[in-house]
Amino acid sequence: MGIKENITIVREKVNRACLNSGRDPSSVRLIAVSKTKPVADILEAVDAGQLIFGENYAQELRDKARELEVAPRTAHDARRTAIEWHFIGHLQKNKLKYILPVASWTHTIDSVELLETILSKAKDLILRNEGDPSPPEPAQDDRRVINSLIEVNIAGEDSKSGISPENVFELVNAFSKACKPANLLTCKLRGLMCMPPFSSDPETGRPYFKKLKDLLDEINSRNIYPEKLTELSMGTTQDFEVAIEEGATMVRIGSAIFGNRNT
After folding, report:
1. How far is it, in rounded angstroms, from Cα 257 to Cα 102?
2. Predicted TM-score (pTM) of this structure
3. How many domains in the chain?
4. Could you give the CA distance from residue 211 to residue 99 in angstroms, rounded to a whole number?
5. Which phi and psi (to 5°) does residue 140 adopt?
6. Domain presence at residue 263
7. 190 belongs to a structural domain
8. Which of 5, 46, 206, 234 is the most exposed, having the fewest neighbouring CB atoms within 10 Å of its CB?
């Protein structure tokens, strides 16, 4: 089957999982994870109505966004301008310059230090006249909001990035204090993200998904962020239906849409 047919199948499974859980299917966003895949595959997905894409590698995200801008004009035109990029890989400070001008969402902020670095470098990274040693004060149109998720190392695995659950509250407080609407770039906290231990059994992830949902509820009950946090990015090809049952609002699907990863 092709990409279009795969997207249809995945959407049907998302809808079924939502209905089985008493949820509105529109409450779950499908993120098509296109890492290592060519722009031609992305355009095929766009033609099927898929507009939200996730990338793991900073320079690959930048290159694909550029390639889409100059790709031959086809029937994809109207939709391609509406593509929403999510960065879902590990955020490295020296790669922020490739991510921030492109991504609407970042799923992997995991420390106060990283948040402060993003905000401190915003002027150099966002303005179109990058490289000017003394760029002018930005106009209102230059100000950007990056929707942000905190990556939680929900199982305490040494091999994975993410903040520990007990330290999440400190980072939420940092978001609340540091991110003001008047900033050139505001990282608006929207929720949490996790990757449970890998398993071929979808049920293995259930307690970790539940734990992340409980953590989000506790953050909201403490009123330590000025807005209610609503987003849970959890669930991939092997376990997204279980994640939806436990409250996921975003699922990150790669191989079920695009096939196995290219090397």
Report:
1. 23
2. 0.90
3. 1
4. 29
5. -60, -35
6. no
7. yes
8. 5
